[in-house]
Amino acid sequence: MENKVSYINQCSQIENEALDWLILLDGDEEPTEQQLSELKQWLAQSETHRQALRGFNDFWNDQALTELFVQVQPKTSKKTRYFFGGVMATAASIMFVAVVAWLFPDKNIHTETFATLVGEQKRIELTDGSVLHLDTNSRIRVLFNDEQRDLFLQQGQAYFDVAKDKQRPFRVYAGNGRVEAIGTEFSVELAEGALKLLVTEGVVAVAKSLSLDDEKRFEYVTLGAVNAGNRYNLLESLKLADLKHNFNQRIEAVNEAELAEGSAWVSGALVFDNEPLSLVVEKINKYSTKPLLIKDPNIANLKIGGRFNVGDLDAFLNLLEAGFSVKVEQFSNEYVLTSAN
């Protein structure tokens, strides 16, 4: 498969940072005073930073970003702040689409952002017929055009049931990695900077970003492919040469039970097969605003098995008390687990 570099990754690092600011302005909430202060500091770093935004400003006929530059001046009037909260909020949204259109000229652009709260999950049907399952506390931006389908996992975990379209690669970016598929099913999790891939069906190619310092841009280098029934973790700490050399050795085969367990959350369930309580608690805490805390190290390695509905914390706690002699104490901001013996 040809290792193409997407248009958006041909931008310089500073231009990508400028786009990040535009994405922020495109959000549902207007920027805070702190964020505007940080934007002002970013603009003050160098003329190159200011030129990156001016370039987008010229593209938009000197209107929207003109107001943006006024907004981040040290002495901003109340009238300007009010204007930013009203007309500028709409202009920023239009600006983001315009910038994307500039990056992908003469193509039909479709972009959306989806997010979930802690304990929330979403099933989303995308415009190409693919289905996206978004796990708890996750966020993803979708950008489709006539030639490619790009999704940017900014936080959390997502499962993809990809509609076949040989003319448009389906690519998911997370951390410093990218996975690509034509028609398949797989999940991607972004955890502590690492891209974690589990392939349920088909084949998925894995690539890592490579900085081109002399040109201040980066491209993606394909490491290899992962077949169905396997998982692969792309660790940020490893160098590109090591990742390529040891790629196949780092692929981990999973049996049917492990595969079902790894994707059970898609159907709103958590499945545990003789796993230590410490790991079970870590997984459950992802779905609860009131976490579980193991205070007694003697129970950390208790082996837990079973299937629980996401969000049904009471059922799990009742099991611990009834079947494992674990004492559960509820406090205002946490549950504390200790041995009942």
Kindly describe this structure:
It is globular and about 65 Å long. Helices cover 32% and strands 33% of the residues. A hairpin with a 2-residue loop joins strand 6 and strand 7. The chain is an alpha+beta fold and 341 residues long. The model is unreliable at 1-11 and 56-96 (pLDDT under 50). Strands 1, 2, 3, 4, 5, 6, 7, 8, 9, 10, 11, 12 and 13 form a 13-stranded mixed beta sheet that branches. Strands 15-18-17 form a 3-stranded mixed beta sheet. A two-stranded antiparallel sheet has the order 14-16. It has helices at residues 13-25, 33-44, 47-59, 64-71, 78-103, 240-245, 247-250, 256-263, 277-285, 313-323, and strands at residues 110-115, 122-125, 131-134, 139-144, 149-161, 170-174, 177-181, 185-191, 194-201, 203-212, 217-227, 230-234, 252-253, 269-276, 292-294, 303-309, 326-330, 335-339. The protein contains 10 helices and 18 strands. Helix 1 (13-25) packs across helix 5 and helix 4 (64-71) crosses helix 5. The longest helix has 26 residues, at 78-103. It has 3 domains: 7-103, no CATH class; 110-257, Jelly Rolls (Sandwich), CATH 2.60.120.1440; 268-339, Phage tail protein beta-alpha-beta fold, CATH 3.55.50.
Quick structural overview:
The chain has 341 residues and is an alpha+beta fold.
